[in-house]
Structure formats: C-alpha cells, structure tokens
Amino acid sequence: MSHTVVTTMTTTTTSTSDGGFCNIGYARSLQGLLKIGQVVTLLIAFLCVHCESRWTDFSALRYFEVVTVWFLIVFLFFFLMYLMRLQSKIPCINWTLTEFLHYAVGGILVFIASIVAVVKSYGIPGLVAGSVFGFMATFLIAISIWTSYKVTCGSQPTGAAV
Predict the structure, then answer these.
(1) CB 110 within 8 A of CB 42
(2) CA-based, 20 to 30 A from 83: which of 20, 55, 58, 157?
C-alpha cells in the first residue's frame, strides 16, 4: 500500500511603501504636504501673536491664539493618524467625513480669528504677521477641503454596464 503525501506552501506578501508601521509615502502626498503646511503656518501664526508684547486688545488676540493652537493640535493629530495608519485600526469611524467637518469648522474659525487679529492689530508688526499666516492657513485649509470633497463626493462608479 503506497501513500502519497503532498505538501503545499502558501506565501502571502504584503507590499507597503516602507515596510513599517509608518506610511512615509503619505507625508509626500498632496494631503500630507497640505497638513504639514497647515501645521507649520498655524504654529508660526500662534508664535507671532503670542510673542508680541505690545497687545492692545487681549480678548481678541487670545481668541486668535486659542483657535490657532486648537486646530494646530487637531491637524497634527490627523497627520499623525494617517502617517501611522491608525485610521485602518478604527474602521467604525468615517475618518474622511470627520476630517472634512473639522476642516470646514477650522477654516471658518481660523478665517474669523485672522480677520479679528488684523482689525485689532493697529499696525503692530507681530500681530499683522500672525494674521497673515492665519490667512495663509485658511487658504491651505480651503485647498484641503476642496481635495477632500473631490475624493469624498466625486463620481462613484456603478455596477451597471454602459
């Protein structure tokens, strides 16, 4: 009585951009570069206003500081989340919609804070520079909203044959 033993081996390989838990390719993508630009411009805007010693209206400029620091932290969180691929570990949250809503609220609030800062600056150079960087951050946020909207609400393929 002869027996035949067949041994099969299956190998599964997963291809990633860098082989680790970090997605370095995301940092080089348009969305990653926009997030880096937003974080940097918000940090510069905050530092310009915070380091200025000749303030004239404390409540308006504190509002600017709070808004810029809050959205700096939020955008840095989103950047690190996508960089470390954490969004795939928590699939119960629609991260694209969450990010879109944060960008929409952040864009509006940073724009209002920049207008308030430029109106209450009275020509003080640090405050004017902070508001200019706030407007730059608003522009970068608007680009992120536009690209996110195109990805989220773009034309969806249907299963029907045309």
Answers:
(1) yes
(2) 157
